[in-house]
Amino acid sequence: MYDTALLIGRFEPVHSGHLALLHEALRVAPQVIVVVGSAWQARSPKNPFTWQEREAMLRDALPPADRSRMQVLPVRDYYNEAVWVQAVRQGVAQHTQTGARIALVGHFKDATSSYLRAFPGWALIDLPRQGSMDATTIRDAYFGATATTVDAALAPLAAQIPASTLGQLQAFAHTPHYAALQEEWRMLRGYRQAWSAAPYPPVFVTVDAVLRCQDHVLLIRRAHAPGKGQIAVPGGFIEQRETVWQSCLRELVEETHCALPEAHMRAALQSVAVFDHPDRSQRGRTITHAHYFNLGDAPFPVVQADDDAMLVQWTRIDQLAGMEEEFFEDHFHMLDHFLHLTDA
After folding, report:
1. What is the edge-to-edge ordering of all strands in the sheet holding 123-126?
2. Rounded to whole angstroms, how far apart are CA atoms 298 and 303?
3. Which 3 state secondary structure label does DSSP give 155?
């Protein structure tokens, strides 16, 4: 018997496999902490639900006596396993006593489950696959339906989805979020299909510009899917005959009309960082080179939205932490890397 059992997942949405692991955690310990990942991410076809909505799915799928034994610990995606592991450990420590016997309950589904071995000192309870269901199958059926055909689309999967979760999915289908996520899902599906005949999975190269001036940064709102309406730093795909530096300056001009002389930009360049986490983009394996510029106390360059941007704005750095859930993909973490917005 353990003092505390842990379960880690995204639960997008909750299904019978999740519940089997959760019931095992409740069996081996009086207290269960469920680490809900991808917290504070903007909604996307891969992460359609807020962590609070996923917590409700988990709680509603349990009898009342078990709900009182479960605590939910939301953890953001840091796109850095060492930092993420530290955040999980710190969060768990706040809910357990020093020296507590802790067990981590999980299943090695594929390479994405390697995090289960990242917590030495905690007992690992490795269970076999619990049923044939996975959340991707549910999401594909869900977003491939319509608000009026959700019931029929999910019917073949309903036996492996808690009734409470089915009810929440049906209600969510009548919100504006559902239609927007369907648009994203269709775009991403078509994007991947266009590359499906390639002899090997493609790797895309992009650039991003983090431009700072007077303790503000230049941000856009994306005009198109994926991430339509979400906040991002200016950037885009590298072109065949460009260096990453040339692409960065070109994308900055095309999206914001911020056309400072190249010599001025060279002088303002502070650093370049590569963001290459395999899961950072739902379009596929995408590696970006982010350039951090600081214009100091110079006057704000005149900017205007164009190309893939519906809006461009100078945003105070001290406001960024409160905007985390509005950012596209890992762009909040990109800003965090250069500007130290979180405590991690």
Report:
1. 70-74, 31-36, 4-9, 102-106, 123-126
2. 14
3. helix
Q: How far apart are CA 129 and CA 342, in angstroms?
A: 36
pLDDT score recorded for residue 188? 95
pLDDT of residue 344: 56
pTM (global) more than 0.85: yes
pLDDT tens digit sequence for 202-229: 999 999 999 999 999 999 999 999 999 9
Contact 341, 219 (CB under 8 A): no
Cβ within 8 Å of residue 149, ≥6 positions away = none
Phi, psi of 231 (to 5 degrees): -85, 140
How buried is residue 80: exposed, middle or buried, by Cβ count under 10 Å (0-12/13-18/19+)? Answer: middle
317-334 burial, b for 16+ CB within 10 Å, e for fewer?
Answer: eeebeeebbbbbbbbbbb
Residue keyed to tokens 């800003």: 335
DSSP codes of every residue in 276-305: --TTS-TTSEEEEEEEEEE-TTSPPPP---
